[in-house]
Amino acid sequence: xxxxxxxxxxxxxxxxxxxxxxxxxxxxxxxxxxxxxxxxxxxxxxxxxxxxxxxxxxxxxxxxxxxxxxxxxxxxxxxxxxxxxxxxxxxxxxxxxxxxxxxxxxxxxxxxxxxxxxxxxxxxxxxxxxxxxxxxxxxxxxxxxxxxxxxxxxxxxxxxxxxxxxxxxxxxxxxxxxxxxxxxxxxxxxxxxxxxxxxxxxxxxxxxxxxxxxxxxxxxxxxxxxxxxxxxxxx
Length: 235
What we know:
Elements: E1 2-8, E2 17-21, E3 27-31, E4 35-37, E5 47-56, E6 59-73, H1 77-91, E7 108-110, E8 114-124, E9 127-131, E10 141-147, H2 149-159, E11 167-192, E12 195-219, E13 230-234
Parallel strand pairs: 3-7, 5-13
Antiparallel strand pairs: 1-2, 2-3, 4-6, 5-6, 6-10, 8-9, 8-11, 11-12
């Protein structure tokens, strides 16, 4: 399990939270540092806005609609490869002149063992979508919500501006290893044939237990590309 007391600083990745395993010396857990909107096979955000509008002198006015999107909490494969390489390079001993080259250190990267979680996405103030992530892989969370007239108009107004106030939050709980220790002294006295003997013992007990640790990872909506993801239906 992930040991929260054994964090590793990775050169070149100050934003990454990397922890050692509590038993396996070559296993490291990488905690995602940013949430986001999933990207489909065509490179487009998995986010769609459907608006029901009425046409007037001032243009289209939204009367309702529907918003669907998929959020993710993961780390890009390229970043994982670079983190792995950085850890291995930092752990491999430096070469010494006249001696055989040191054996390269090989590590295994893992994602945290998620015990639970909740996703809250607020594209505009007053509109919030909530759901549970998959707790595996990319931690995908597909959400859909029907929009009131006020919510639809707020999204219509902010959508073409790139949703500057949008907020994605993954409130997650990961399983971790917690170490505890206790110490004490015991005195034992023995009486034999009128003679008394005593001895003192110091006792130290160490144990590792499974625990849970909450974390919150936030993110933003894509800065561009939203204009092509909105559809207006005139009533």
